[in-house]
Amino acid sequence: MEFNRYKKYDLHCHSLVSDGELSPTELVRYAHGCGVEVLALTDHDATAGCAEAAAEANRLGLVFVSGVEISVTWGKHLLHIVGLNFDVENAALQTGLAGLRHQRTGRAVEIARRLAKLGIDGALDGAQTYVNGQILSRTHFARFLLDNGYVKTMQTAFDRYLGDGKKAYVASEWVSLAEAVAWIRSAGGHAVIAHPARYKLSATKLRRLFDEFKQLGGAGLEVISGRQNINITKNMTDYAKKYELRASIGSDYHGPSQTWSKMGQIPLLPDACEPVWELWQGT
Ligand code: AMP
Ligand code: MN
Ligand code: MN
Ligand code: MN
Q1: Same domain, 88 and 102
Q2: How confident is the model over 272-283, as pLDDT tens digits?
């Protein structure tokens, strides 16, 4: 497989298997139409879309890379760790992901209970109607709240009810950073910190995270994530260099209703970065 810096990469996006809006096939077709040449599907806590996406990518001549976005609890923070280019059949990884999906079901019941206390009934069944794949996400609750007139935008659903510390927020103990990295590595893949600027960590905490992640065998961080300020890109480029982490790039595309985000429009990696895909040369 030939990977080079000037190809159009998108190594972070979602399908109906998690909280995206397109089927894996539709997503690959859309990515191809946007000029993406190397694509990873990274559904939350699930890889069930990878086979279908790979088959469609193969038909279209697009390079497909297996992927997943794992929910991690780090201290009191929820982090997302992306796994790339691993063996999807790996038992340790799949057992771990199944556990996370089970936790999601329990959390959903509790979110619905809290919403009911606030006078919003039927949220669990309501959210379920949007689930096409394997996981139940806050995104599905947000769609239920939006479509039933409780909020005017998805953002408001998070700001008022579902976001961290809001009225229907349920803190969960996902997996540790060490476990997530270990699963990805045991499946032969590379672990990448998703959208590092979105956790609102202080500079000190961010440094601690990079340090710990590197020690655990983490491979890289998303230097470019969809809709990102240029200063953040500069910052992340510097961190990647300092911690000897590779750079990844992804839109975090969820579907057409995310009108601000399209695939194939994210910038190339800055020249100073060492791309994560260089690790895949010859695989
Ligand atoms: P979960 O993994 O179920 O906790 O849900 C988190 C998902 O909610 C993220 O992956 C995003 O897709 C989505 N999300 C988080 N914050 C927002 C927001 N402010 N507006 C819209 N979607 C959001
Ligand atoms: Mn999502
Ligand atoms: Mn994420
Ligand atoms: Mn994502």
Answers
A1: no
A2: 999 999 999 866
